[in-house]
Write a structure and sequence with these properties.
Strand content: 15-25%
Number of strands: 18
Distance between the termini: 91 Å
Helix content: 25-40%
Largest sheet: 7 strands, antiparallel
Shape: globular
Length: 494
Amino acid sequence: MPKIPSQVWWDHSPLMRMGLKHIHTGKVRETYEIPGHPDLLLVITTDRLSIFDFVLNTLVPDKGAVLTALTAFWVKTLESVMPHAIVAYGNKVNDYLSQPLPPELLTRAIIMRRIRILPHEFIARGYLTGSALKPYLAGQPVCGHVLPPGYHDGSQLLPALCTPTTKADSGHDEAVDVKIVRPDARLATLALYQEAASIARRAGIIIADTKFEFGLDSDDRLTLGDEILTPDSSRFWLLVDWLSAQKKKKSPLGLDKQPVRDFGKTRGIDQFNPESDADLATVTDIRIPEEVVAATTNRYRYILWLLTGEKLESFQRRYGIEVSEPRLQIDVVFGSENDVLGQKGVLEIYAKAHPETDLHIHVLSCHRNPDQLRNFASGYPKGPNQVLVAGAGKAAALPGVLKAWMSFFGNPTPVVGVGLPGTTMDASMAATLSIEELPGQPVELNSDGRAFASLIEALNRARGEFLTRTVESKPAKLNVDWRSMQGPRIPTAV
């Protein structure tokens, strides 16, 4: 059993009072036997977090619910490729229990068949990065695969590889030669990966690599088990980020617990030994900053929304879990009254279709009255369920200027930019380009990195999740001799 700090122990008492018997604690999950169903197990995914084979003394809100929902999504999506041991998710879980679970437990619960887990973990790699990069750069095979020269961090692997590892309860997993594992599990790994990677890419996501676990059911059939294709078991990249990173021969930042990994490296956790009591004690004493925890929750929820097209609460409600969806406030900012009149019909249709959304309209010119826009940004409240949609025609500076002011006042509220159609094609193109070409792309774009060209698309995007980003800034040059930068003096005509 992994060593878990006492502060993040899971409380078994509510489930034990229901007659469930706790039988296993993992780094993240807790497993229980179900009375009357000897062939089934109840698995609860906690909000615990592990990095570098250490369970941290920190909980990440919503993490367990996101992992459970994503696994349920992929099980249904990939059921034609491979059977999974999961039997029930959502309110169907209660069909196997003596009394219903409360919503806070149901969001992180699944029912699984017992299977005999194979002794290896199967990693599908479509891109060269992570633990596979080091042996490649040293000229060594990667789990028995001899790769051609010329690859770099983030290079796509064609074809994708199966790179198995040992399955260690504690300590580090070790890479093994692909030739020693079951051929059917190796083929299943690649088949699952190819199908999932194709689906994810259509959502603007690259699955760089992912881990699968297999077992044998009561009839000795190969069955997929454990969580699948989640941020804990996979490396997700935004397609636009990967394309940009490849120009520098690097891999992009992953949509997972990377903020925590990065923080852990600053404390040397990646150099510690999980078998050392002294190192365990040191890691237990480390507190993860609140902003790092919030950024991690943000990334987990964002990847769920990208893949499923639904917010976490909406997905859960579709499966019969009684959770409340927070009311959303969207403030639409236009540059002129004419813009409002031109979009009046769209606004009325949207308001009728989504009565659960509070829609507010503002006219704030960033040219004629810049103080008005600055004052709006300075007084705009901070909140997790608020989104700004800014639209203007022609050279649409409004979205970028509004986002700049929001950032200046330390307000992370996302701004969705929409280039409103102009009277000519050139005008329409100017509106979208002025949003897309902002350095750092601080305004929210679609999955292809393009600005929204219609208000209805922008409003629909506002109902999704957003990734908190920091925009890199370039320091201004100081002590510049401006006279040395002037061109030749032009004589003045008399």
